[in-house]
Design a protein that fits this description.
By secondary structure, this protein is an alpha+beta fold. The strands form four sheets. A six-stranded antiparallel beta sheet has the order 1-6-2-3-4-5, sandwiched between helices. It has a four-stranded parallel beta sheet with strand order 9-15-14-11, with helices on both faces. Strand 3 and strand 4 form a beta hairpin. The longest helix has 43 residues, at 236-278.
Length: 716
């Protein structure tokens, strides 16, 4: 990739990538970001691809490269800020200039784009913003020109009026066509940190902190030299003031970089943890309990708030400790004091390890208590209604007693580190090392002052390191608890890159729809906790078929539905949709064609509007046509009375903190959510169980009329 040209270019053909060239462009961009799979060969996209096909292709190919790509919406007012601070970006140009731009970065008012000639071109930010908003601005500019034509207004004033009209009329109008490109959170650590410029900021923080300490030390050395030599200041006071004042900007720069680093690292950490949570398998969450993961995510607050801040304090204290060793080598007892300091640090680290063990036991127990509290809060109404009052708090006393014992041990170890292995312990030992000097008749006062200065600097550093070590111990333990979440993100990345799914075009889907059955299960077996739920199961579903699956509780009906919907993977056998497996389709694309409404306890209402809950499987925000279609389906499912009762109708907040829905209303809302996605195969798992016969008849007619292939699971 060649360097940037020296002069800004107007938008030219070398900058613009055509739709058929994107399969060459994305690997170049992934390589510049350091993606681990940037060399993969990508399928090309048809030249006549529509917006939905382009979005599907971008999502598919970016994942193969170890990146994620997300369409972003901004407004006319915020467009320039988005272009400035969110590179790298893939920008769709308006129809007048069809094609795409690859924005690498922004410096000042200049954008750097990667052209298909593999050169980096410069483009003014204002020029691109004007080009992207030209279709929106054109009618208003024409109207303004017509209004100003008969008036005697200068050209400069005309331009000001035009800009003011555009800002007033278009400031909140959405601008689309930009795609954010980021590395997947489970990718290698170094490229992700480099993309956020964290290593550069850390290097600058280290240099600024070191420079400030050296300048402060040099200033006091100048003063100390003149004082102890009794030679007067001889103009060195001005030098001292200059050194101290020079150190202040470096200190301010270090504080600024520290704050920026805390924000950037915290953002990266939260993103990585959230991605890991979302990549967990449902069985993993069910096995460990949602409360356990909730506690782990809440611990990220501690890791960000305490851990990151103390890392910077520890770094500054280590620099002070190194300077203290250097100063002790210049003073009296230079044979013993540095060795005493090294030995004291070794003892300090040993007690720090003991403190780590005590804190780890305390954190694990506190995590268990938090998990129990969360689960009890979720099931509080059930416990209140059905559990005997005498047994509601059986385990709490034992848990609290153990918590008190662990807290006492932790407090003792922390007190030992703070008082014996901290500043006080070092001062006692260092003064004992200086005792032979005090017994000499005429010690060198200047050397003695240097030694005392080194001792005090080491004491200050040890105090800061001790405090930082206590917080860093807790942060490290929290980081250990997040390993499972982090591994799930890495496992997902490894899976999609080792066997990437195919990009299936609409023409191929139509052809396969004629040649293959819609769904085919061959020899499918599934075992859970050493119990075989499905054994050598075969099933064929054709387009347009309606199937009813009945069976006793625990017979594997819901497991079969989860396997068909790619929520679980079979241990043996093969499941094919239009002749291709889940790995070939990709789970995300598979679930666009196969939609399931799970059982009541596995289906949820989000604390959002009713419209969001029924349209969450569609594109969001919805168009007016989407809202009208959603309301029509809800009324066909006999939810019209509910919509009429709710003050805000489709925009009414529902869920735990909003309008409460009955069991039957929830079931019908879940059915509406599935119907609105218009899948090829819809699975309803016990969705009719809470409906009365009259309502069931109306709902069933709507489902049969609006669904394609249908699989209904029910008890006999």
């Amino acid at each position: 990739m060649k360097g940037a040209k020296n002069t800004p270019n107007q938008l030219n053909s070398a900058m613009i990538w055509q739709c058929g060239q994107l399969h060459e462009a994305l690997p170049l961009l992934a390589g510049s970001l350091g993606a681990s799979h940037a060399s993969q060969q990508l399928p090309s996209i048809p030249l006549n691809a529509n917006q939905q096909m382009l979005a599907d292709w971008l999502t598919h190919t970016a994942t193969q490269l170890g990146m994620e790509i997300r369409s972003t919406r901004t407004t006319y007012r915020e467009l320039k800020q988005m272009l400035r601070y969110n590179a790298p970006l893939l920008v769709t140009l308006p129809d007048e200039t069809p094609g795409f731009l690859l924005l690498l970065r922004c410096k000042g008012s200049m954008l750097y784009t990667l052209g298909h000639d593999q050169n980096i071109h410069k483009l003014p930010l204002q020029e691109l913003a004007t080009l992207l908003t030209a279709p929106l601005a054109r009618p208003w500019l024409s109207m303004t020109d017509n209004m100003l034509a008969p008036l005697d207004v200068s050209e400069r004033r005309r331009q000001q009026i035009k800009q003011e009209v555009l800002h007033r009329q278009l400031e909140d109008v959405p601008v689309q066509g930009c795609y954010l490109l980021r590395l997947l959170p489970g990718d290698r650590l170094w490229p992700q940190l480099r993309q956020t410029h964290i290593p550069m900021q850390m290097a600058m923080f280290g240099l600024a902190t070191t420079a400030a300490l050296i300048l402060m030390l040099a200033g006091w050395m100048v003063i100390g030299r003149d004082v102890f030599l009794q030679s007067g200041f001889h103009g060195h006071l001005d030098l001292w003031i200059l050194l101290i004042l020079t150190a202040i900007p470096f200190q301010l720069l270090a504080v600024h970089l520290k704050n920026n680093l805390s924000l950037d690292i915290g953002h990266w950490l939260r993103r990585r943890v959230l991605d890991g949570i979302l990549q967990l398998e449902p069985d993993e969450i069910r096995h460990q309990g949602s409360g356990s993961f909730l506690v782990q995510v809440m611990n990220v607050e501690f890791l960000e708030g305490q851990g990151l801040g103390t890392v910077f304090s520890a770094f500054t204290a280590l620099l002070q400790l190194l300077l203290a060793c250097y100063i002790l080598n210049l003073g009296l007892a230079k044979e013993t004091l540095p060795l005493l300091l090294i030995a004291f640090i070794a003892v300090f680290l040993f007690f720090g390890f003991l403190h780590y063990r005590h804190m780890k036991a305390w954190v694990l127990h506190a995590r268990r208590m938090g998990f129990d509290l969360t689960e009890n809060m979720v099931g509080h109404r059930t416990r209140l209604a059905q559990q005997h009052p005498e047994h509601m708090h059986d385990d709490e006393d034992q848990l609290l007693a153990r918590y008190a014992r662990l807290s006492e041990r932790l407090d003792h170890s922390e007190s030992l580190m703070k008082n014996v292995c901290g500043r006080r312990g070092w001062l006692l030992i260092s003064l004992a090392g200086l005792f032979p000097v005090f017994t000499t008749p005429h010690p060198d006062v200047a050397s003695l002052a240097i030694s005392i200065g080194g001792i005090l600097l080491a004491a200050l550093a040890l105090e800061q390191i001790g405090q930082a070590l206590r917080y860093m111990t807790g942060a490290y333990i929290v980081r250990e608890q997040l390993q499972n979440i982090d591994h799930s993100s890495q496992r997902y990345l490894q899976g999609i890159t080792q066997s990437p799914p195919r990009f299936v075009q609409s023409e191929e889907i139509e052809r396969r729809d004629r040649e293959y059955p819609l769904m085919e299960l061959r020899g499918v077996s599934y075992t859970c906790y050493e119990r075989t739920l499905l054994d050598n199961c075969d099933l064929y579903i054709k387009a347009g078929q309606r199937l009813l699956l009945e069976g006793n509780s625990g017979g594997g009906k819901s497991t079969l539905a989860a396997l068909i919907a790619a929520l679980k993977l079979p241990h043996q056998g093969q499941i094919c949709l239009l002749g291709m497996t889940v790995k070939q389709w990709g789970a995300q694309h598979w679930r666009k064609h196969v939609v399931i409404a799970p059982q009541f306890h596995d289906n949820h209402i989000i604390n959002e509007t009713f419209a969001f809950n029924v349209l969450m499987g569609n594109n969001w925000p919805p168009t007016p046509e989407d809202l009208r279609e959603a309301e029509q389906i809800c009324r066909e499912l006999r939810l019209g009375n509910l919509l009429d009762r709710m003050p805000a109708g489709m925009q009414q907040m529902v869920g735990e903190s909003g309008w409460r829905l009955s069991h039957g209303e929830r079931s019908r809302m879940f059915i509406a959510r599935s119907l609105l996605q218009q899948p090829r195969l819809m699975i309803l798992d016990e969705s009719f169980a809470a409906l009365d016969p009259e309502t069931l008849g109306s709902v069933l007619q709507c489902v049969l009329r609006r669904s394609n292939a249908l699989l209904v699971i029910a008890h006999p």
